[in-house]
Amino acid sequence: MWTIAELTVKEILYKRIFIVIFWMSLAFLVCYGVGTHYAGEKMAQANSTMGYMAKGFLSTQIYGMGLYFASFITSLLAIFSSVGSISKEIESRQIDPLLSRPLSRYSFVFGRFIGLSGLLALYGVWLFLGITLVNQWLGGDLKATVTMVQILQALGLFILQPIILVTVSLLFSARISTLNSGIIMMMLYVISMIGGFIEQIGSLVKETIMINIGIVTSLVFPIDSLFRKMTICLFDSADNPISFAAQGLFGSVSAPSNVMIFYTFLYGIVALCTTVRSFSVRDL
């Protein structure tokens, strides 16, 4: 298991996927930092005419925007780095010498999962903290007011997103081709995010059908629920009576419950166990 995990990490590093993504993410952080800095300066100049609610709205929008695109980047990396982790080995027949050794298919799947999840978790921590530090150091009057507890809670939910994506990607990779796995995962991800926005709009206009659509998409693929819960951890506070009004586009009117987070954990465990079962009985 650990040998496969180490091999997985070496393969990804050898292909320089993470090196390219690292430099592209660094460029993203620079652009985000420049934008945050000048937005903060502009806010300082207009501070006398800008109301408290407007300031709170803009501060959370700046921070939320950075986290939204960071989540998008991390999710895409999780999908593209894991959809072919099993299927490509089968298609190229490189899996034969691996499984001819005293190595169970169970160990192979879990080794892939550990290697991919470990790298993506480290990347997620780096990108999340990068966005947060840029916002706090360069935001000026527009920096979001968050506590260390809020940051740690949100960070845990942030890195859970790519881990869940890895488990589902491995499930498809164990059964179908890399191309089909990638298409299905991208469609599920897009449907989840769109369903989340529909649910938030439905909660605003009190439309039950729209709310139910969001709930169903969350049950089918709960990635958007993790992002919404993360924003609640960061922006919603009992001592801030206008926190909802300040959340804006990246906030959540209909907050996912703790039961939904438990469901997401269970979702990932079931997906991983199903992958092991499916790969174990597949005729290679």
Description:
There is one protein chain. The protein has 284 residues and is mostly helical. The chain has one domain. Helices cover 80% and strands 0% of the residues. The chain contains twelve helices and no strands.
In short:
With 284 residues, this protein is an all-alpha fold. The chain has one domain.
Structural topology:
Layout: H1 2-14, H2 17-45, H3 52-82, H4 87-91, H5 95-99, H6 105-138, H7 148-173, H8 178-205, H9 208-220, H10 223-235, H11 243-247, H12 258-281
Protein name: ABC transporter permease
Pfam families: ABC2_membrane_2
Organism: Salinithrix halophila
Throw out a few tags for this protein.
12 helices, single chain, 284 residues, mainly alpha
Q: In percent, how helical is the residue content?
A: over 70%
The ordered H/E elements are HHHHHHHHHHHH
Average of pLDDT: 82
Q: Based on CA inertia axes, which overall geometry fits?
A: globular
Structural class: mainly alpha
Beta fraction: under 5%
Q: State the separation between the terminal residues, measured CA to CA.
A: 20 Å
Question: What is the total domain count?
Answer: 1
Unreliable spans are 237-246
How many strand units? 0
Biggest beta-sheet profile: none
Number of helices: 12
Estimated radius of gyration = 21 Å
